[in-house]
Amino acid sequence: MASTQTIAQHYGRADLGTVILAALNAAGKNIDRLEPDDLAPIDELHSRGRESTSDLAQLLALKGDETVLDVGCGIGGPSRYLAKTYGCRVTGLDLTPEFCQVAAMLAERTGLAGKVEYRQGDALAMPFADRTFDVAWSQSVAMNIADRDRLNNEIKRVLKPTGRFAFSDVVDAGGGAPHFPVPWARESSISFLLTAQATRAKLEAAGFNVITFEDETARALARAEGRMKSAGAPLALGLHIVLGQDAPAMLKNMRRNYQEGRVGLVQGIATRRN
Ligand SMILES: C[S@@+](CC[C@H](N)C(=O)[O-])C[C@H]1O[C@@H](n2cnc3c(N)ncnc32)[C@H](O)[C@@H]1O
C-alpha cells in the first residue's frame, strides 16, 4: 500500500510559499492584500479549476451558516472561495504539511484567517469528533486513496446526521491506464482510480444517498484542450507554480488521458443516510 509519506512527498515543496508570493508579486499583485480571485490560477489544484469549485458550490446551494470540512484541501483555494463567496466557516485537512502552511499564509493575506483554518492530517483517520460538520467537500483527492471504503466511512462519521458531501473525482473511464505523470501521481503506485459506477456504489455502501451525480468529462476535456492552445506563451500565474517542473508533462498527459477515454471526471452531492 502507498505510504502517506510518499503522497506528501509527491505534493510537497519546501519553498512553495516563497515561490507563490514571488510569482504573484511579479504579476503585479499586492501580496499583502490579496483577493481569493488573484489566487485562482494557482490554488485550484483540480480539473476545471475555479469553474469546478463554483459549479459544485452551486449544487450545494450553501446558505452561509454551514460548517464545511474540505478533505484534502491542498493550498486552500476552494476553502477560501467558499468562505469568501458564501460566508461559511471552513476547516481544511491535508496530508501535505507544506500545503497546510501555505494555505494558512494565503488565508492571512486574503483577510480570511477568521473564516478558514487548516489542519495537517490523514483523511483516513481524521482528527475530528463524530458529527462535527454540516458539509464535507472533496475535490481530486480520492484518487490518491486506495481504501475508499475507509475514506467514505470517515467522511460520514464526521458529518452531522443532516450532513451533505460534495465531491469531484477523476475516475477510470475504461480506456486503459493513465499516461503518467499526472497532477496527483508521477507513477502508478499512488494512483487509485475507480470507475464512475464504483465511485457511486462505494458511497451508497458507506451509508450515503447519492442525490446528484454528473459526468463532467466533456467540460474537463474542453478546458484541458483550451489550456494546451495557450501553452506556447506560459502564463506567469498557473498550476506550474505548485506542480513544479513536471507541470507541462502532467497537463499534457491529462489532455491525452481525457481524449483517449482513459480518465473521466464526475461531481455530485450525497446526503448522509442514518
Ligand atoms: C490534487 S490535490 C487537490 C487539492 C484540493 N482539493 C484542490 O482541489 O485544490 C490532492 C490533495 O489531496 C491531499 N491528500 C492525498 N491523500 C490524502 C489523505 N490520505 N489525507 C489527506 N489529504 C490527502 C494531497 O496532499 C493534496 O493536497
Explain how this protein is built.
- The chain is α/β, with parallel strands linked by helices.
- The chain has a single domain, classed as Vaccinia Virus protein VP39 (Rossmann fold, 3-Layer(aba) Sandwich), CATH 3.40.50.150.
- It has a 7-stranded mixed sheet, with helices on both faces.
- Helix 5 links the parallel strand 1 and strand 2.
- Helix 4 packs across helix 5.
- The longest helix is centred in the middle third of the chain and has 13 residues.
- The two termini are 31 Å apart.
- The model has no long low-confidence stretch (mean pLDDT 95).
- The site of S-adenosylmethionine has 26 residues, from helix 1, helix 5 and strand 2.
- S-adenosylmethionine binds next to helix 1, helix 5 and strand 2.
How large is the share of residues in beta strands? Answer: 15-25%
Bound molecules: S-adenosylmethionine
Question: What is the multimeric organization of the chains shown?
Answer: single chain
DSSP helix fraction: 40-55%
Q: Which class do the helix and strand fractions yield?
A: alpha/beta
What topology, given as strand order, has the largest sheet? 3-2-1-4-5-7-6
Order of helices and strands: HHHHEHEHEEHEHEHHHE
Radius of gyration over all CA atoms, rounded? 17 Å
Question: Architecture, CATH level 2?
Answer: 3-Layer(aba) Sandwich
Number of continuous helical runs: 11
Taking the alpha carbons of the first and last residues, their distance comes to 31 Å
Mean pLDDT: 95
